[in-house]
Design a protein that fits this description.
- By secondary structure, this protein is of the alpha/beta class.
- The chain has three domains: 218 residues, FAD/NAD(P)-binding domain (3-Layer(bba) Sandwich); 111 residues, FAD/NAD(P)-binding domain (3-Layer(bba) Sandwich), CATH 3.50.50; 107 residues, FAD/NAD-linked reductase, C-terminal dimerisation domain (Enolase-like, domain 1, 2-Layer Sandwich), CATH 3.30.390.
- 33% of the residues lie in helices and 25% in strands.
- The chain contains 14 helices and 22 strands.
- The strands form five sheets. Strands 1, 2, 3, 4, 5, 6 and 17 form a seven-stranded mixed sheet that branches. It has a five-stranded parallel sheet with strand order 8-15-9-10-11. Strands 18-19-22-21-20 form a five-stranded antiparallel sheet, sandwiched between helices.
- The longest helix is centred in the first third of the chain and has 25 residues.
- The protein is globular.
- The N and C termini lie far apart (69 Å).
């Protein structure tokens, strides 16, 4: 039986980062992955492929709608080659997962392909695709098995017409009418992809606004953008039935007033969140406990009730974000090595990769009101920037929330071009507990989208934004 210092079950962003960090710290490391490629949901059927399709569809939309504004005339018809677009997406995925193979070899990490399950707290059985099995021993085990798409109990997902995000990434045709159940990140991103390619898209959301966990100002602004692009948003609607007959999908939903509506389309994307994936781990054999939400229960050190077993990422409490899992992977590796790492969960940024992009870190206005915090607001519109006018990316704003007494930045909320990249400035500032005045006194290159952050900070400090 091969012995390791650490065995990690699951090779998504949390798992593979944990493996690399463990190896860097001198531990003999094993990484167990049930699929034939590393990277988990994020690299294979999540973050990376969805961004590839978002970028490709954005290029198409620009060519059809915006090139003329820039003096670029196209002779002939601009057409969507969906097969080629999907193939490019897969090429990006293949290149990225191949990069992980290289990193595993570079760091002398032993990779096992198969389903890992506990025999006891130190032994993990690996069931391989050919029917054989292998058992390894590890001083420490890290559970990093991630999550899978959630569903509503009355919906039968057939993976053909009633689909999840996994199937939406490899459709063979552009839908005529795609009905999206859920107005969160996944539904909005993939809904925008197919809307750009020519599909009619209707989003049905149970809550009273889209991206309901983010600041309401961001929800409102993104809703306006979607309305301009002809994407229909039905909020405060509870889905009661989704049925299919041949190539026709019907959805029934009830408004909060009790009125029932029916939608007909050719595809229905069910994107109602994700749930922890723990099936097949045989946690009972190791004595690992679960919480009431079906997650692996952990303490502040991400340690389970079994002292040598840890869990990270989507399988534990907290936001289901790849970069949160990565931070936890490095955190656990360093904890096992005897170091004292730190994660501030309040400063894990959240991003929606629609266009305009949406990004936020820290507290929302709604949270500050509930907590009774006396705060002030500074907001600056993207359309007031020279850079925004130059690129014709006029939608959106930056909003900074700061403590009324100390001026410490409590939350930053951005919707606009490159918001996903801009939010890093806010994270850095808040990690060092910067004030709004601190940000306002930093020099920002001109012309850039980042100037909106400085202007919002000026607005929050003394209500003296320069360009508004």
């Amino acid at each position: 039986m091969t012995k390791f210092d650490v065995a990690i079950i699951g090779s998504g962003p949390g798992g593979y980062v944990a493996a690399i960090r463990c190896a860097q710290l001198g531990m003999k490391t094993a990484l167990i992955e049930k699929y034939s490629t590393l990277g988990g949901t994020c690299l294979n059927v999540g973050c990376i492929p969805s961004k590839a399709l978002l970028d490709s569809s954005h290029h198409y939309e620009d060519a059809v709608k915006h090139f003329g504004e820039h003096g670029i005339d196209i002779d002939g018809t601009v057409k969507v080659n969906l097969e080629k677009m999907i193939a490019r997406k897969q090429a990006v995925v293949n290149q990225t997962t191949a990069g992980l193979d290289f990193l595993m070899k570079k760091n002398d990490i032993t990779v096992f392909e198969g389903m890992g399950s506990f025999l006891n707290k130190n032994n993990v059985a690996i069931a391989k695709a050919d029917g054989s099995s292998e058992t390894i021993e590890a001083k420490h085990v890290i559970i990093a098995t991630g999550s899978k798409p959630n569903n509503l109990p009355f919906i039968d997902i057939d993976k053909e017409r009633i689909i999840t995000s996994t199937e939406a990434l490899k459709l063979k045709e552009v839908p005529k009418h795609m009905i999206v159940v859920g107005g969160g990140v996944i539904g909005l991103e993939l809904g925008q992809v197919y809307s750009r390619l020519g599909a009619e898209v209707t989003v049905v959301e149970y809550m009273d606004r889209i991206i309901p966990t983010m600041d309401s100002g961001l929800s409102k602004e993104l809703g306006k953008v979607f309305k301009k692009s002809k994407i229909k948003i039905l909020t405060s609607h509870q889905v009661t039935a989704v049925t299919r007959q041949n190539d026709v999908v019907k959805l029934k939903a009830t408004e909060k007033t009790g009125k029932e509506i029916e939608l007909t389309g050719d595809y229905c994307l069910v994107s109602v969140g994700r749930k922890p994936y723990t099936e097949g781990l045989n946690l009972e054999a190791a004595g690992v406990g679960m919480d009431e939400h079906g997650r692996v229960a952990v303490n502040v050190h991400l340690q389970t009730n079994v002292d040598n077993i840890y869990a990270i990422g989507d399988v534990v409490q907290g936001a289901m974000l790849a970069h949160k899992a990565e931070e936890e992977g490095a955190f656990v590796a360093e904890t096992i090595a005897g170091q004292k790492p730190h994660i501030d969960y309040n400063l894990i940024p959240n991003v929606v990769y629609t266009w305009p992009e949406v990004a936020a870190v820290g507290k929302t206005e709604e949270q500050l009101k509930v907590e009774g915090v006396d705060y002030k607001t500074g907001q600056f519109p993207m359309r007031a920037l020279g850079r925004s006018r130059a690129s014709n990316d006029l939608d959106g704003f930056v909003k900074i929330l700061a403590d009324s007494t100390t001026d410490e930045v409590l939350g930053v909320h951005i919707i606009g071009a490159r918001a996903a990249d801009l939010i890093a400035e806010a994270v850095v500032a808040m990690e060092f507990r910067a004030s709004a005045e601190d940000i306002s006194r930093m020099s920002h290159a001109h012309p850039t989208f980042a100037e909106a952050i400085k202007e919002a900070a000026l607005a929050a400090t003394e209500n003296r934004a320069l360009h508004m």
